[in-house]
Amino acid sequence: MSDAILHAGNTIDHERDFRSPVTESLAVRAVLISLTFVLLALFLVLPLVSVFAEALRMGFGQYLATFSNADARAAIWLTLLVAAIAVPCNLVFGVAAAWAIAKYRFRGRAFLISLIDLPFSVSPVVAGLVYILLLGSNSVIGGFLLENFNVRIIFAVPGVVLATIFVTFPFIARELIPLMQEQGTSEEEASISLGANGWQTFWYVTLPNVKWALLYGVLLCNARAMGEFGAVSVLSGKLRGETVTMPLQVELFYNEYAAVAAFSLASVLAGLALVTLVIKSWLEWRYADQLASGVRGH
Amino acid sequence: MAQFRFREPSIIPGFRVTFGFTLFWLFLIVIIPILGIYYRTFELDWAGFTSIVTGQRFLAALRLSFGASLLAAMFNVVIGVLIAWVLVRYTFPGRRIVDAIVDLPFALPTAVAGIALTAIYAPNGWVGSLFAPHGIRIAYTPIGIWIALVFIGLPFVVRSVQPVLEDFSTEIEEASATLGASRLRTIVGVMLPTLLPAILTGFALAFARAVGEYGSVIFIAGNIPRQTEILPLLIVFRLEEFNYAGAAAIAAVMLTVSFLILLAINLIQSWTYRRFGNV
């Protein structure tokens, strides 16, 4: 009997001492997890919380007053308008590019993908500058448009739209291309062999296969389109009530020391970011198998 | 003899339309405007170009932009690898929320991040007021710029390292442990070399983003010439003076650097592919 007790005691001791060789001790794990929480709270959560705290500093009435300001309202409308133009443009481009790149094998595909990703590595300010140089009133094209058609692109709404299209250019294409490459072409080939035309094949075969990835791309594209600051700031000319989007109006309020108004408007954009993150996480969790593997963020 | 063929035959229709449209839109929106920068830079003669890129104000902004971006990307590597490790290897309450929060800098508009960071780190802000009594100013100094760049670059390292770490086979770690290596030695000597290409890619992405970043930096920077003035802001000032050629010259320098970084990332990835297969 004493043997049995001794044996049991040994087993317990042994289990307490045993640690998987492929993980760290409890203390190390606790320290690393706490460190992660502290770092993320300090660098990411604190700024987010401060937006709402600063917006509500003078009470809820002051917060709401921002949204009856005519400039703020015009900025909200312009932001919605710009996103409503830029996102569909990139949607059509993204689908066409993904079809051309993923459904055929031709030379230089990898290079073409790099070119599509190019706007990600260009500074937003440079993105704005390129259009000023190309379409400004002292350039050949810009001067021609202004003289003959009285059309202004730079320091007007078309410039804001162009800048937004540029910075959100790769979003949808880069979600679709890897997924459609993984899916291959056999289903489309079967559809064509059975007599469907190209359009039917896209609509009934390809699109259902990529719809969640498409939504994912649209979501990220829209968030960036509504939040873009640098490129739009260079091209807008900041005419109040005319070419000022929400992020630009935040800057104008802030530089006029109207801090509550700036943070109130910013809180709407922060809310948009939060909603985007929630939907994005939900898509990643629910439809992980229908998104391109390993593609996240950006 | 095999004939040169641009594309392999396929029964799927629509190549001409989609490929043609892709090229047309790509050239219209991206390629031609970017080439315009170099075209306008060549309007300057050599003396004009060198006087811009050797000007004191330009050099100070160049040093600040690249220096602060380098330090921020290096710090991002340290905390990014740590966060990726914790997210992949450990289970704890709230892990999914932490995972989602990492993408906040991608989703939050940069101007919003800019004014929020300024509010926190200003001398009367939540964090700034803790440092102000000790004579340490964060906002309106290069430290503030560094903090904004850390914020903006954080997700790049985490999201580069995370998938590689998820695919890492524990058998290799077990083999290392069985052969007598300590846990630290296994991590540093066995795992880190495999993660290195992903870490370098994340570093390069964070660095490239930081060099070009504008919205989140200009509010916290204070924008004092030669002290806290970043390169993108200098472009904006040149534009406000209608000095288009000067702006284009600075942009050409920045663009060339981003292309070199992009090339470096591609080289890292093709090297990884050759070395480790499909990682």
From TrEMBL, chain A:
Gene3D superfamilies given in the database record: MetI-like
Cited PROSITE patterns: ABC_TM1
What are the ABC transmembrane type-1 domain coordinates in residue numbering? 76-278
The alphabetized UniProt keywords are:
Membrane, Sulfate transport, Transmembrane, Transmembrane helix, Transport
- The answer to whether UniProt assigns keyword Magnesium to this entry is no
Kindly list the places in or outside the cell where this protein is found, as annotated in its UniProt entry: Cell membrane
Q: What residue intervals traverse the membrane?
A: 26-53, 74-102, 122-146, 153-173, 257-279
Q: Which GO terms describe its cellular component?
A: plasma membrane
Classification via InterPro entries? CysW_permease, MetI-like, MetI-like_sf, Sulph_transpt2
Q: How does it assemble?
A: The complex is composed of two ATP-binding proteins (CysA), two transmembrane proteins (CysT and CysW) and a solute-binding protein (CysP).
Q: Tell me the function of this protein.
A: Part of the ABC transporter complex CysAWTP (TC 3.A.1.6.1) involved in sulfate/thiosulfate import. Probably responsible for the translocation of the substrate across the membrane.
PANTHER family, alphabetized: SULFATE TRANSPORT SYSTEM PERMEASE PROTEIN, SULFATE TRANSPORT SYSTEM PERMEASE PROTEIN CYSW
Q: What name goes with this protein?
A: Sulfate ABC transporter permease subunit CysW
From TrEMBL, chain B:
- Family as reported in the entry's similarity comment: Belongs to the binding-protein-dependent transport system permease family. CysTW subfamily.
- Look up the domain of life of the source: Bacteria
- One Pfam family, short name please? BPD_transp_1
Q: What organism does the record attribute this protein to?
A: Neoaquamicrobium microcysteis
Stated role: Part of the ABC transporter complex (TC 3.A.1.6.1) involved in sulfate/thiosulfate import.
UniProt-annotated location(s): Cell membrane
**What molecular functions are annotated in GO for this chain?**
ABC-type sulfate transporter activity
Name the keywords, alphabetized: Membrane, Sulfate transport, Transmembrane, Transmembrane helix, Transport
Which residue intervals define the domain ABC transmembrane type-1 in the entry? 62-266
Its gene name is: cysT
Subunit and interaction comment: The complex is composed of two ATP-binding proteins (CysA), two transmembrane proteins (CysT and CysW) and a solute-binding protein (CysP).
Major place of localization?
Answer: membrane
Q: Which GO terms describe its cellular component?
A: plasma membrane
Is GTP-binding among the key words of this record? no
Instruction: Kindly give the CDD domains that the UniProt entry links to this protein.
Output: TM_PBP2
**Bilayer-spanning residue ranges:** 21-40, 60-88, 100-123, 143-165, 186-208, 244-268
The topology of this chain with respect to the membrane is: Multi-pass membrane protein
* The name this protein goes by in its record: Sulfate transport system permease protein CysT
